[in-house]
Amino acid sequence: MAAITGQQFLDRLRQNPPTLYIEGQRVEDPTTHPATRNMAHSLAGLYDLQNQPELREKLTYEENGQRYPMSLLVPRSKEDLARIGEAHRLRADYSLGFLGRAPDYMNANVMAAGAGAEYFNRCSASVPGSEKRDFAANMRRYYEFVRDNDLCLTHALTNPQVNRAKQASEMPDPYIALGVVEEREEGIIVRGARMMATLPIADEILIFPSTVLKENADKSRYAMGFAIPTNAPGLSFQCREPFDVGRDVEDHPLGSRFDEQDAFVIFDDVLVPWERIFLLYDVELANKAYAATDAVLHMAYQVVNLKIAKTEAFLGTAQSIVNAIGSGQFQHVQSKVSEIIIMLEIMKALEVAAVAGAELNPYGVMTPARGPLDAARNYYPGMYARLPELLQLLGASGIIMMPSKADREGPLGPQISKYLQAGNASAEDRLKLFRLAWDMSMSSFGGRQSLYEKFFFGDPVRMHSALYEVYDKQPAVERIQAFLKRSEKPQAEEVTA
Ligand SMILES: Cc1cc2nc3c(=O)[nH]c(=O)nc-3n(C[C@H](O)[C@H](O)[C@H](O)COP(=O)(O)OP(=O)(O)OC[C@H]3O[C@@H](n4cnc5c(N)ncnc54)[C@H](O)[C@@H]3O)c2cc1C
Ligand SMILES: O=C(O)Cc1ccc(O)c(O)c1
Fold first, then answer.
1. Mean pLDDT, residues 299-324
2. Nearest CA, atom 7, ligand 2
3. Beta carbon of 264 within 6 Å of any ligand 2 atom
4. Is 163 annotated as a binding residue?
């Protein structure tokens, strides 16, 4: 099939709906349910982009006479990486960077894990009956399956937030965290829950090990990696409160189109076929899976490109507000817009550095440099909160005094047109702009974005610690030691009268 159209995506979703629950009700058809239909159609629009004649070359690549999404290309050169990066940015622009988990992110995960599938071979030896299991082949085949069908994936890594002081096995019930219950001829039975899966209106869910499994054991029933359809028997997604509340696009420009949803994932004795398992029981292998296959770097590369698009959207919105209310001559206003420019240029520079420093990894995959990507994924979550704050500081009351489309069309329409016009635009255009700023920074959609940016790639506290652990600080220490040992002093010429 490969590089599908939006209609194909919608048909597939309608025919195989994930088992979603919203507000206590089963979602029978996510393509028509009020909380998910607009998002489903936005995703369809994203799939359609890759089939537009002018974008086809940029968003897909050709292999064996088929076209596949660019985010699944296994990069062998820096040129390949640059092509992938451009596709990430073009696709991010579609949602102004507000769709965190468009399929590109998981595609990067599956691409890197598939190309580094040998890593998972080491696991087979520790599984009973392992002569029958070839986890590396499973991972490789899964990549091909995702690519050949242009699947949309969601994923869930973390355990329910019941008690972070305890290991999974010490919880009130051993199957609060997702664990293996038993092995059967056809596969394993898993029970328990995972805390968070963004974009549950997906074809499949990837269960990968979080980078930190705290179990104090070499082997654990909680160490696992697998993928199954989102409508597998026994699997349910409990969605959070929807932020698409059925308003006009003009009123909720982001929430009405890009509420990707987040779901709590419940496994009620779900069968995972052996051929869908990539990793089992091995704690060390689980902890290192993301790093050792470099999947984390390819995902971070998608992320840095996405955040460039998002920061550009903040810059464009901020400057549009300044233009609309004529505040551009004030020095502090200029300085606030400059803060966004600085963030944007830092992210762009880190993206360029990631490609410039890319190297082939042991699996022959051209892998963007860790240093700049680690910097980006630690920098942006800490800085992001300033972006919505800057919109609030620049827009002030304009971001709350925003009569709706219905108000504009109601009895007070003429007054609204007069009193809420912009210095450079009609009231209609001004209100559209401020509604966008509100959805980016203040609405429930915007609030969720602020939380998302803090945590979506892991806990920022532990990410900083991880950076501290992996970063080679020794050369810098040695330079200081060498400097401290230098005893020579520049000889100043004596000036004689
Ligand atoms: C909007 C949103 C969408 C997300 N989407 C996904 C998704 O699609 N898939 C997915 O797998 N995950 C997703 N995540 C989850 C994300 O990976 C986690 O939020 C992140 O890893 C932090 O884990 P946690 O939320 O369980 O926080 P917790 O681990 O419960 O942390 C809560 C607090 O306790 C502190 N804390 C806990 N344990 C420690 C410790 N050992 N050391 C120091 N401090 C500690 C933390 O610093 C934090 O302050 C999403 C999160 C959000 C908010
Ligand atoms: O490994 C972890 O726990 C951190 C992590 C990595 C990738 C993700 O997508 C994510 O949500 C969280």
1. 98
2. 457
3. no
4. yes
- 3-state per-residue secondary structure call for 405-459: HHHHCCCCHHHHHHHCCCCCCCHHHHHHHHHHHHHHHCCHHHHHHHHHHHHCCCC
270: its two tokens: 């779900």
Instruction: Quote the ligand 2 centre to 387 CA distance (angstroms).
Output: 23
The finding on whether 159 has its CB within 6 A of some atom of ligand 1 is no
Q: CA-CA distance, 187 to 182, in Å (whole number)?
A: 9
CATH of domain 295-479: 1.20.140.10
Ligand 2 atom 8: the closest Cα is on which residue? Answer: 457
| 114 Cα to the center of ligand 2, angstroms | 18
Supply the pTM of this predicted model: 0.96
148 CB contacts (<8 Å, ≥6 apart)?
A: 1, 2, 66, 68
What residue's CA is closest to ligand 1, atom 40? 462
455: CA distance to ligand 1 center in Å?
A: 6
241-254 pLDDT per residue, tens: 999 999 999 999 99
For the chain, which residues make up each domain, given as ranges? Answer: 6-292, 295-479
Domain spanning 6-292: CATH superfamily: Butyryl-CoA Dehydrogenase, subunit A, domain 2 (2.40.110.10)
Average pLDDT over the chain, rounded to whole? 95
Residue 19's pLDDT is: 98
Question: Ligand 1: does its nearest atom lie under 6 Å from the Cβ of 196?
Answer: yes
